């Protein structure tokens, strides 16, 4: 089965990201962000909202590699 993929624009206030993520069911999430501190913040927000962060990638190539190795 194909994984569900949704891109979230998180340039808005973190409060809005937190509100949006708590309205979903638990998901496995691959964070793709080239700014390391922002990626860590997103990981924390998603984890606190009850989601599983299966990895952090800083490039598209790294994201594809991680996605291929994640079930």
Defining traits:
two-stranded parallel sheet; 2 strands; alpha+beta; 44% helix; flat; 3 helices; 71 residues
Total number of helices: 3
Head-to-tail CA distance between termini: 11 Å
Helix-strand topology string: HEHEH
Strand order of the largest sheet: 1-2
**Number of DSSP strands?**
2
Low-confidence stretches: none
Radius of gyration: 12 Å
Q: Helical percent range?
A: 40-55%
Approximate shape: flat
Largest sheet: 2 strands, parallel
Description:
This protein has 71 residues and is α+β, with helices and mostly antiparallel strands. It has helices at residues 14-22, 36-48, 60-68, and strands at residues 28-32, 52-57. The protein is built from three helices and two strands; from the N terminus they run H-E-H-E-H. Strands 1-2 form a two-stranded parallel ribbon. Helix 2 links the parallel strand 1 and strand 2. The chain is flat and about 25 Å long. The model has no long low-confidence stretch (mean pLDDT 78).
